[in-house]
């Protein structure tokens, strides 16, 4: 386990090294598709379990829809089609056969499908095709379904967790009897994601809506939460979409209203993905490796014995057994690393790299004094303390780390928020610091496009509850009441 | 909610009707791919949560590998390739574009992939391609990974849950330093599946190994558990495979041995799928609908109020609140159906169809006497009992139902087990009753094939721990020491 390149030296390389060295994931032999290794997947499982409960509390039920979608479904909603057609994995055949020499394998041309299927990039189309069968009356509404699934989007430039050709996610798809109810659902999911991001990932976010350009293909409004990474680039954490009647019209889904008449159903969708793990890494980690918030850490306390011989180990293990059992009984995820072909120093590095919030280690001297050496990953501070004190303190320490990580991230994020009134400052700050740049925008696609071309910054969001003061567009100088956040982004 | 066709009248139709009417799943617009509806998915989630714990207890960690696999990977292990090549969904392109008239969507011929990818039918190949990078030394072994995933096998004849072009499953993939350890792992997983099947699904099984013909493509030995459905057909519940060194040789995965030298790694894989839900349905259900074992029932107790007016409902709901809270505090999954546009009769049918183990209902008369009407789905028995007595009894009743369902299934299964000594009896029993037919087999592929052609029965398994007496092959009359189970199967 060698050390990392520093963030300062090469942020992008630092990120890749962390993912590899902490054994979260690696690239596979398939372009842009990653392998999520057990430690990375354990983080995803923690995320899933929290989010799944939250989704169920808002009334969502889980279901599962086919991964293969006929291409004709995709073409029913024009914007949706235009957004996804360019990055679809397309299934055209259903059989392989041996090459004439019998040594290799090739497509069996006789197995051409009547209609091509795409591997789902998202499931609005297949789900609304089903909702047509399921919805007749206002009594059938609302429907709130969620699916945990893999999706494929053939991205040209990929990065582990942040942008991969295949990723894992949850996608919520809801159907409602009124526009208002659907909009409220989309906003509610944004609150759920905000809660998850801030209180579990310890990642502060800005809530807002997307500009038309950045909107989900097929949505009338995209709500989003945006976070700021340590290098000054923004990262979209999650989105929820008010889809209006776009999909119900495309798939002809009407309901009989309570007091007569028929109407097209109102829709939303929402999702967060394994990209969250990228956000987690880039928000908290440092030049020593991962730093994980305790609530999502697969291992919260690592125990490492220090010994010269088997007799010492036997004595140490007596204490370890008691400590481990106590912690586990108190719901703390604890691991005892007893590998004897690795040195304590190797293990110290290993779990620092893996971002385990608390480490305790003990040699025969500590055991004799009923002590442990306690190490906090967030502050890198070491101290000796009595075993009893440690056991008493452990839950509070984990809580404290969780809070401190959030506050530290908030402070860093706030230090990367700027308001500018002119385009020179805009460009200067963007080049020197990055960050969220709050500025007035004239609301036109042209201005947005020009700014993107000239600076690579995009409108990350139009914040919810922004002030209503008026100003002048940072680019065109036209009067404007839209103060938005620009940033370069992942 | 209309009633079902009876099992006697048309078992196959009965099965399909149950799946649809209890809202477990339905067919989609994609050939052979099903939509798992919330109630069906809730059963799968229960299964997952139990199995996931069991797998973790045996040391498995979860991970995730790409769903798209280069076709060249598949061709590396010859038997594996031959088993799966004929049913692969093949991705050939990565983009769609508008047709010239702009109205439809078509394949973009310029987006042809250099190498075709298949949607995973199983993940041995992609996983062993990774194990090559992960395994160098005996210290890296064993590796025990599990993946929860969707897989696609382009089956020609599909049936909801039992055989679908896409299904959900868990697949375990392990790597070991010795043949013995790998074989023990495969056997251990068979015990895990047996435990799950018998103690959670309440489905009795026979443990055995497959004949060469029925073996997993690429395995040296396939261990399996087989259950008997009510119509006399067998269903394979789960399999675990000793893969020998087939995949390590195909993917060149060697390890340095503890005491010098290099050796190819030993492998196993194992899996159970959403097919388990088919087994659950066909083992326990009756002409009134599903019957679910309490341990896997998404709803264990349904509460239905019977009232004429709002005032009565208000009084009833006071008791409901107390009862529901009490049950939930005792870990019992409880639902109160308060829909007021459905009659109690409709609801009774609905939850009988859905196989909810216990129902309580109460009108104003019962409330006045502190009573409830209690209904057991397994026996269809009704009785009045005091609310307190019900609360006291509920956990025991659920346990009792779980046990009774197992015993009932075992009795039915045992009534469908026959030993025969000659081919006439073999055919007669098969045609009249079906079931497991225990008979001597001469061990040749020819005999197996002839019997299959003539009777549609296959060797379901060579039972573990069968007696060692010798006899004569039921078909060829040759001396044999292999007593195996034949059956027609799903």
UniProtKB/TrEMBL annotation, chains A, B:
<dbReference type="InterPro" id="IPR033721">
    <property type="entry name" value="ProRS_core_arch_euk"/>
</dbReference>
<dbReference type="GO" id="GO:0005737">
    <property type="term" value="C:cytoplasm"/>
</dbReference>
<keyword id="KW-0963">Cytoplasm</keyword>
<dbReference type="Pfam" id="PF00587">
    <property type="entry name" value="tRNA-synt_2b"/>
</dbReference>
<dbReference type="InterPro" id="IPR045864">
    <property type="entry name" value="aa-tRNA-synth_II/BPL/LPL"/>
</dbReference>
<dbReference type="InterPro" id="IPR004154">
    <property type="entry name" value="Anticodon-bd"/>
</dbReference>
<dbReference type="InterPro" id="IPR002314">
    <property type="entry name" value="aa-tRNA-synt_IIb"/>
</dbReference>
<dbReference type="GO" id="GO:0017101">
    <property type="term" value="C:aminoacyl-tRNA synthetase multienzyme complex"/>
</dbReference>
<keyword id="KW-0547">Nucleotide-binding</keyword>
<feature type="domain" description="Aminoacyl-transfer RNA synthetases class-II family profile">
    <location>
        <begin position="38"/>
        <end position="293"/>
    </location>
</feature>
<dbReference type="GO" id="GO:0005524">
    <property type="term" value="F:ATP binding"/>
</dbReference>
<dbReference type="InterPro" id="IPR006195">
    <property type="entry name" value="aa-tRNA-synth_II"/>
</dbReference>
<comment type="function">
    <text>Catalyzes the attachment of proline to tRNA(Pro) in a two-step reaction: proline is first activated by ATP to form Pro-AMP and then transferred to the acceptor end of tRNA(Pro).</text>
</comment>
<dbReference type="InterPro" id="IPR017449">
    <property type="entry name" value="Pro-tRNA_synth_II"/>
</dbReference>
<keyword id="KW-0067">ATP-binding</keyword>
<dbReference type="InterPro" id="IPR004499">
    <property type="entry name" value="Pro-tRNA-ligase_IIa_arc-type"/>
</dbReference>
<dbReference type="InterPro" id="IPR016061">
    <property type="entry name" value="Pro-tRNA_ligase_II_C"/>
</dbReference>
<dbReference type="GO" id="GO:0004827">
    <property type="term" value="F:proline-tRNA ligase activity"/>
</dbReference>
<keyword id="KW-0648">Protein biosynthesis</keyword>
<dbReference type="Pfam" id="PF09180">
    <property type="entry name" value="ProRS-C_1"/>
</dbReference>
<dbReference type="GO" id="GO:0006433">
    <property type="term" value="P:prolyl-tRNA aminoacylation"/>
</dbReference>
<dbReference type="Pfam" id="PF03129">
    <property type="entry name" value="HGTP_anticodon"/>
</dbReference>
<comment type="subunit">
    <text>Homodimer.</text>
</comment>
<keyword id="KW-0436">Ligase</keyword>
<keyword id="KW-0030">Aminoacyl-tRNA synthetase</keyword>
<comment type="similarity">
    <text>Belongs to the class-II aminoacyl-tRNA synthetase family. ProS type 3 subfamily.</text>
</comment>
<dbReference type="InterPro" id="IPR036621">
    <property type="entry name" value="Anticodon-bd_dom_sf"/>
</dbReference>
<protein>
    <recommendedName>
        <fullName>Proline--tRNA ligase</fullName>
        <ecNumber>6.1.1.15</ecNumber>
    </recommendedName>
</protein>
């Amino acid at each position: 386990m060698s050390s990392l390149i520093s963030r300062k030296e090469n942020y992008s390389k630092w990120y890749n090294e962390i993912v590899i060295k902490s054994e979260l994931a690696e690239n596979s032999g398939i372009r842009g598709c990653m392998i999520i290794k057990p430690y990375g997947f354990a983080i995803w499982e923690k995320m899933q379990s929290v989010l799944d409960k939250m989704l169920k509390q808002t009334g969502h039920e889980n279901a599962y829809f086919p991964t293969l979608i006929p291409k004709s479904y995709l073409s029913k909603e024009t914007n949706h089609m235009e957004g996804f057609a360019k990055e679809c994995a397309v299934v055209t055949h259903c059989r392989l056969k041996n090459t004439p020499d019998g040594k290799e394998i090739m497509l069996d041309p006789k197995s051409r499908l009547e209609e091509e299927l795409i591997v789902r990039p998202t499931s609005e189309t297949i789900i609304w095709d089903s909702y047509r069968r399921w919805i007749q009356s206002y009594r059938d509404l609302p429907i709130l379904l969620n699916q945990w699934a893999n999706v494929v989007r053939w991205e040209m430039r990929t990065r582990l967790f942040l942008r991969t050709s295949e990723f894992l996610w949850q996608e919520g798809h809801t159907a409602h009897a009124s526009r208002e109810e659907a909009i409220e659902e989309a906003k509610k999911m944004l609150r759920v994601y905000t809660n998850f991001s801030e209180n579990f990932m310890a990642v502060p976010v800005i809530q807002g809506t997307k500009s038309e350009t950045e909107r989900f293909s097929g949505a009338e409004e995209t709500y989003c939460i945006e976070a700021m990474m340590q290098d000054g680039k923004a990262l979209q954490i999650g989105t929820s979409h008010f889809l209006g009647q776009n999909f119900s019209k495309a798939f002809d889904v009407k309901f009989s209203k309570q007091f007569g008449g028929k109407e097209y159903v109102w829709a939303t969708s929402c999702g967060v993905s394994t990209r969250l793990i990228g956000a987690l890494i880039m928000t908290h980690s440092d030049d020593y490796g991962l730093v994980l918030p305790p609530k999502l850490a697969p291992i919260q306390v690592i125990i490492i014995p220090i010994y010269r011989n088997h007799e010492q180990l036997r004595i140490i293990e007596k204490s370890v057994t008691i400590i481990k059992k106590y912690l586990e009984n108190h719901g703390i995820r604890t691991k005892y690393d007893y590998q004897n072909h690795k040195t304590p120093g190797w293990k110290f590095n290993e779990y620092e790299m893996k971002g385990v919030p608390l480490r305790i280690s003990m040699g025969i001297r500590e055991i004799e004094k009923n002590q442990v050496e306690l190490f906090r990953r967030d502050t890198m501070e070491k101290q000796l303390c009595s075993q009893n004190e440690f056991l008493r303190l452990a839950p509070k320490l984990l809580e404290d780390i969780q809070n401190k990580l959030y506050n530290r991230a908030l402070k860093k994020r706030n230090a990367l928020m700027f308001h500018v009134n002119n385009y020179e400052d805009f460009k200067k700050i963007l080049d020197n610091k990055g960050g969220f740049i709050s500025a007035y925008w004239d609301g036109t696609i042209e201005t947005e496009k020009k700014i993107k071309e000239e600076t690579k910054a995009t409108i990350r969001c139009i914040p919810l509850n922004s002030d209503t003061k008026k100003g002048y567009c940072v680019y065109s100088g036209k009067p404007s009441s839209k103060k938005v956040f620009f940033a370069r982004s992942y």
